[in-house]
Give the backbone structure.
Amino acid sequence: MTESPATEPANGKVCQRVKNGLKPERNGLVKSLHHRCHEPQPEHHCHPEEEEEVLAASRHGGGLYKRPFVESFEETPMLVAVLTYMGYGILTIFGYLRDFLRHWKIERCHIAREKEEQRDFVPLYQDFENFYTRNLYMRIRDNWNRPICSVPGAKMDLMERASPDYNWTFEYTGRVVHDVINLGSYNYLGFAENTGPCAESAAEVTMKYGVGVASTRQETGNLDRHEEMEKLVAKFLGVESAMAFGMGFATNSMNIPALAGKGCLILSDELNHASLVLGARLSGSTIRVFKHNNMQSLEKLLREAIVHGQPRTHRPWKKILIVVEGIYSMEGSIVRLPEVIALKKRYRAYLYLDEAHSIGALGPRGRGVVDYFGLDPCDVDVMMGTFTKSFGAAGGYIAGKKELIEYLRSHSHSAVYATSMSPPVVEQIITSMKCIMGEDGTTLGCERVRQLAENTVYFRRRLREMGFIIYGNNDSPVVPMMVYMPAKIGAFGREMLKRNIGVVVVGFPATPIIESRARFCISAAHTKDILDRVTRYFHHV
């Protein structure tokens, strides 16, 4: 991980010289970070000889946290880092050798190439991207884009495929691999199902309204179900108003430009999702990036923004917008929301919170990271989330004050130009959300929220007991397990599939080059037996 100062509470003193707010031990391991509101910690002054005894941010943020906050990130061991770089180096050398063979027609090249008559044009493809794709990615391409042919529940069915040309193309064998344990889908609460009240309600609405609306909300595509859903979302989140969009990615990328523009400053976490990054770039605002979940880095940028103002003119910024996520989908970490809100209030900035992965998956009532920390939803200026994960549907939402939502209805490109959400998708959202809230007359939703929390803690504990290096927060259902070396990425995914376990493996450039990983997404639909079976097979792999 990148080196950063300690994570400093908004009103506390901390120790310096740590990694991502976590202090390395003598053996290269990193202590977990603990925030405990019921155990006041004495102040420590930092000295080199005390570095082994002092945890960065061991104080609980001046009483901001009402529950233990435990996250761990282990720095890549030096030997592993060296071997990983060597692995990429060897792959690069062989890549250039194969390119040489392809140039002289000794080896056939299947990748898209510029036509001979266009050789004097500006290249359409970047050379290194092309090199990486044909020589590194192609070796393990079979681990991605696997087609499923069932509901993405706790178990799923996969269509088997084979490649006659080393992953350049694939052919279906006609065989279906049944009952593959699903550890890759974002089906946190198990609502992505084809039976039960959600599926039945969606089927009824399809018969009444059809599948498509064929218009925008501002024209003839505004259904009564859309308005009911938005009122329910606002009630669920505890805010004044909300509006929904047909695509989660576009909810970020098309609404941030409506909220910020030239003369505004966006402070973005370095690990924010691509949709947030794209939205910030499209807005035309000045963008400054702070270190991941590092409050000292964020406060430093806020201070500089207030003191110096805009470049050249030094005029005050029209608006300062802090952009963070609830759960970071590659790290499994949870935003330090109490500290972010404290800083936002101190420097009078605005807060944009993306709860794509945390809504439904965190908090005793499933209301997301705000519920998880027991905070007031009104302290978050713009609440964003998606329906694609915990609700088993599609689309996203923006929620907050009524004035904000009314402004977005007329200024957001996604609201003005996008086609309305499909009626059965809307009904899936309404039914699943009512289930979580208990408005369906059952305790099914509460039981699923509780089951997800139990499964998350159990699975993470089992992996640690087995000696694996895992990242993130103890309560995060996104569980990254480090595999580091490029050869292990493809091997791990293939070997797990041989044992009927479907996993997601991630490597460079989606992660730092020495931090390749397998990412598991835990669901309330998983049973203890399923999780035990998975961990048991880890020993074999």
Observations:
- The two ends are 26 Å apart (CA to CA).
- The chain has 15 helices and 15 strands.
- Confidence is low (pLDDT under 50) at residues 1-60.
- Residues 244 and 397 are 4 Å apart (CA to CA).
